């Protein structure tokens, strides 16, 4: 609805106007300026007024977009703290060796990326020379999230400072021999250099935000002083299309993470072509980050553009820069000056006149090479502004040319992401451009040489002195000398060993109760990091709220609505729980930061992340690989597990496959415990394996169930079987010596169906069944695969599952609340006849009993399947199978 003059209403219409006449005068003044000097002048005055108002402290909404110019003008740039000529030579050597390494590798077809580092070289070199703190100084140093495709440039720098040799560079992407370099930042493959895996696009920026947040968490909980640590995330403008890249921008702003800087290399190209072909990605990103509350620093143009801006007395150049789309800017970098004069400057008369004042050489310099991201002074100014800004994170939008210095065959070409080598002639042209003393004689048999000024050269000494002043080499991953965590007191585990008697308790609650007791441990209690994505009450964790507190850097600034209740919602600056809201990706990023704190900060933490099992591996499986790559440790807990346990939620919530996905991750130890005491034994063993004297780089995945059941006491001597994945829980008692017999293997909540089936088989059919608890199908398979590998080496090892079932009479029937493929993982190592039951297919909404009958995994279904297996062997009449189906209504 509009007002009488046809204008749309706004929020201002709701505010009282104390002086309408004065308001009308301001509006009339604006109209007069527009009429007399034009709309551009009027807009300029309005923006100047807003800028002045902001400086005066008036509370006004900020503009989301500024002109397409540098945030820091040349006149305001700080003094450059270094030898620019020396740093230019260092950068030239690194550019050369990065390109040489990938080109030499092309002989073997291993590929690599050249153009990304070529565009971003100064973004990295300026940081390494002036800002990135190493781990040999005070504190933990900075955390660097290197853009994956730029890794050749990082290797080239490590070669220059003596951390890598030519043989290693020649083994780029050739790791099978044991002395190669991984394609991208992979800590598990090169743990002394890489700290954070980033090439799975979008995960780097997301993890960087939560790493910066976790740094504050450690400080606010008085575990580690992280004031000296700054998080730097290097990203591509195309990478920002990934939803994870921008998913947590508001969190970073909300928690005022001024210990975080994003550096986005805006070369205006993604993998196949322009990022925003018909639009302007820099302006889009500026609006997005400003809207989220970030400090934005644009570093777009080099010094050559200063003359153009000074000549632009009418604002025509600024207007033109605002309207030219990315794809056109890319084209300008590849066309001749005549084309630029016609298509850029020919847009309006004022620009035509401006261009008459410019030489062809000046236009070529501006449009071909002069970008803010290619000039050390510009980058230095932006970085200095970022680290000095307080109260908000900073994003630096640095414009570059993709493939810069690689020659016309590479620069700004759509295909440059796929171009893996330069010709000898292209290298010679690059040599001349960079001014490197590499003679023609160094090119042997058409092979480009590596270049190095010498271990005692001025360049290497300068580089090493700079790094020494900043705290040592970077990037670098360091394992701090720290003692293993002491094992918690046994009483926390004993509470679950003894069972629950007649009281019913779900294994979800058993796990939460155990962790709550472990968090009270005097030695290790403070190191637990509970993480939950906004469903703590679903998992019975509300009792932790008042005791442990929910982490918030602001503390609690309000009176909680349930303050008068025992388990009220308590937030605290030193709170221990990370209650993330509805973001499994954010919670997983929390987990990764906590799970790797032992290396990042030398502070071992014990994270446990609990979630609906359906929304863990399926939704964030890529982050599970990131966790494994980063050598993280901790407990991931899939609650309300299984396909028939959470039936009211329907198809999308029914998890029958997370154990299959988890089985694909070599670092994940996957357990599906049936009883509370099994949970206790697994957690205890996990603490030993991950945090004990011989700590392993693994993490645990446990599935637990929100199905209350009486919890039995732990039988004697079952600990080893629980950890290895299988033990006999309840042996059947034969009615007669020749009674048919079989083995029922069950995991998780399915053991209760198996136990009921055991009774039905004995009572109704005279069949004896032994019931086994299969706590880990995955660990049984891992052990069996290791035995197979040993056999190839000439060593004879018998898989544990084969040993455990050796001599067990009758066939084996495995049952679980998972797809049949889950238990079928171990079938080839079972000597007995094998069959399985599972919940293949989609979930559905109904009662648990109805769902289990639907999938054919309830106790009567197990009975029928058991009889069918025995009938095949001739141990029961075939008619018994039909009779059982009819009796149980199947």
TrEMBL record:
Its EC number is 1.2.4.1. Mg(2+) binds at residues 237, 267, 269. Pfam families: PDH_E1_M (PF17831), Transketolase_C_1 (PF22613), Transketolase_N (PF00456). One of its GO terms (molecular function) is magnesium ion binding. Keywords: Magnesium, Metal-binding, Oxidoreductase, Pyruvate, Thiamine pyrophosphate. Gene3D superfamilies: 3.40.50.920, 3.40.50.970. Residues 725-858 form the Transketolase-like C-terminal domain. Residues 147-300 form the Transketolase N-terminal domain. Its cofactor is thiamine diphosphate; Mg(2+). It catalyses: N(6)-[(R)-lipoyl]-L-lysyl-[protein] + pyruvate + H(+) = N(6)-[(R)-S(8)-acetyldihydrolipoyl]-L-lysyl-[protein] + CO2. Residues 1-20 are annotated as: Disordered. This is Pyruvate dehydrogenase E1 component. It comes from Streptomyces violaceoruber. The lineage of its organism: Bacteria, Bacillati, Actinomycetota, Actinomycetes, Kitasatosporales.
């Amino acid at each position: 609805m509009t007002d009488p003059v046809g204008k749309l209403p706004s929020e201002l219409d709701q505010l009282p106007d104390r002086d309408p006449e004065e308001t009308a005068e301001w509006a009339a003044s604006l109209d007069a300026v527009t009429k007399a000097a034009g709309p551009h002048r009027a807009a300029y005055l309005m923006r100047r007024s807003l800028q002045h108002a902001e400086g005066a402290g008036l509370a006004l909404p900020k503009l989301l977009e500024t002109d397409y110019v540098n945030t820091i003008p040349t006149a305001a740039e700080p003094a450059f703290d270094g030898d620019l000529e020396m740093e230019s030579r260092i950068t030239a050597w690194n550019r050369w060796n990065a390109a040489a390494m990938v080109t030499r590798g092309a002989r073997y077809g291993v590929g690599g990326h050249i153009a990304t580092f070529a565009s971003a070289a100064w973004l990295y070199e300026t940081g390494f020379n002036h800002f990135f703190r190493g781990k040999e100084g005070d504190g933990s140093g900075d955390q660097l999230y290197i853009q994956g495709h730029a890794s050749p440039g990082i290797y080239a720098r490590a070669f220059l400072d003596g951390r890598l040799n030519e043989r290693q560079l020649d083994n780029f992407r050739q790791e099978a021999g044991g002395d190669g370099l991984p394609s991208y930042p992979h800590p598990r493959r090169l743990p002394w250099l890489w700290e954070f895996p980033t090439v799975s696009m979008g995960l780097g920026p997301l993890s960087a935000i939560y790493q910066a947040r976790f740094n504050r968490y450690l400080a606010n909980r008085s575990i580690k002083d992280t004031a000296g640590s700054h998080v730097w995330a290097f990203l591509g403008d195309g990478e920002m299309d990934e939803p994870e890249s921008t998913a947590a921008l508001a969190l970073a702003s909300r928690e005022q993470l001024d210990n975080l800087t994003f550096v986005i290399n805006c070369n205006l190209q993604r993998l196949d072509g322009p990022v925003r072909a018909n639009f302007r990605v820099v302006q889009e990103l500026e609006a997005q980050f400003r809207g989220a509350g970030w400090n934005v620093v644009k570093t777009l143009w080099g010094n050559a553009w200063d003359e153009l801006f000074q000549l632009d007395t009418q604002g025509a150049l600024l207007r033109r820069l605002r309207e030219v789309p990315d794809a056109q800017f890319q084209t300008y970098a590849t066309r001749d000056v005549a084309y630029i004069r016609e298509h850029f400057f020919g847009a309006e008369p004022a620009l035509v006149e401006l261009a008459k004042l410019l030489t062809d050489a000046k236009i070529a310099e501006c449009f071909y090479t002069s970008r803010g991201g290619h000039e050390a002074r510009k980058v230095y100014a932006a970085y200095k502004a970022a680290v000095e800004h307080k109260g908000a994170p900073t994003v630096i939008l640095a414009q570059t040319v993709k493939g810069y210095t690689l020659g016309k065959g590479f620069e700004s070409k759509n295909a440059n992401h796929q171009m893996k080598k330069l010709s000898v002639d292209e290298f010679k042209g690059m040599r001349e451009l960079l001014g490197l003393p590499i003679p023609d004689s160094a090119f042997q048999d058409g092979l480009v040489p590596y270049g190095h000024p010498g271990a005692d050269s001025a360049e290497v000494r300068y580089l090493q002195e700079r790094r020494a002043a900043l705290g040592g080499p970077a990037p670098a991953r360091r394992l701090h000398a720290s003692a293993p965590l002491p094992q918690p007191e046994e009483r926390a585990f004993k509470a679950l060993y003894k069972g629950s008697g007649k009281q019913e308790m779900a294994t979800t609650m058993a796990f939460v109760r155990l962790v709550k007791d472990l968090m009270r441990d005097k030695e290790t209690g403070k190191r637990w990091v509970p993480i939950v994505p906004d469903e703590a009450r679903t998992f019975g964790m509300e009792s932790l709220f008042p005791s442990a507190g929910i982490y918030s850097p602001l503390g609690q600034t309000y009176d909680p609505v349930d303050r008068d209740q025992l388990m009220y919602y308590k937030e605290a600056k030193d709170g221990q729980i990370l209650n993330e809201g509805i973001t499994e990706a954010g919670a997983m990023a929390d987990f990764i930061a906590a799970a790797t704190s032992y290396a990042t900060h030398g502070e071992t933490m014990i994270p446990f992340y609990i979630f609906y099992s359906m929304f863990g591996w399926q939704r964030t499986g890529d982050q599970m690989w990131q966790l494994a790559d980063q050598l993280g440790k901790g407990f991931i807990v899939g609650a309300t597990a299984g396909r028939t346990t959470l039936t009211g939620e329907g198809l999308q919530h029914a998890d029958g496959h997370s154990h299959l996905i988890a089985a694909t991750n070599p670092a994940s130890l996957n357990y599906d415990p049936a009883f509370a005491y099994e949970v206790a034994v697994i957690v205890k063993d996990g603490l030993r394996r991950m945090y004990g004297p011989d700590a392993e780089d693994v993490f645990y995945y446990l599935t637990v169930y929100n199905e209350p059941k009486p919890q039995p006491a732990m039988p004697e001597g079952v600990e080893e079987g629980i950890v290895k994945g299988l033990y006999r829980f309840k042996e059947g008692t034969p009615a007669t010596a020749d009674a048919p017999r079989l083995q029922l293997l069950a995991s998780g909540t399915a053991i209760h169906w198996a136990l009921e089936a055991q009774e039905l088989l004995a009572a109704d059919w005279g069949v004896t069944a032994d019931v086994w608890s299969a706590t880990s199908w995955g660990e049984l398979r891992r052990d069996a695969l290791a035995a197979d590998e040993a056999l190839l080496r000439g060593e004879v090892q018998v898989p544990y599952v084969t040993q455990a079932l050796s001599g067990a009479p009758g066939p084996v029937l495995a049952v679980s609340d998972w797809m049949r493929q889950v238990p079928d993982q171990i079938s080839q190592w079972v000597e007995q006849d094998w069959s399985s039951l599972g919940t293949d297919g989609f979930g559905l909404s109904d009662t648990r009993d109805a769902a289990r009958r639907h999938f054919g995994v309830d106790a009567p279904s197990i009975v029928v399947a058991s009889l069918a297996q025995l009938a095949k062997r001739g141990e029961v009449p075939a008619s018994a199978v039909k009779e059982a189906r009819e009796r149980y209504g199947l």
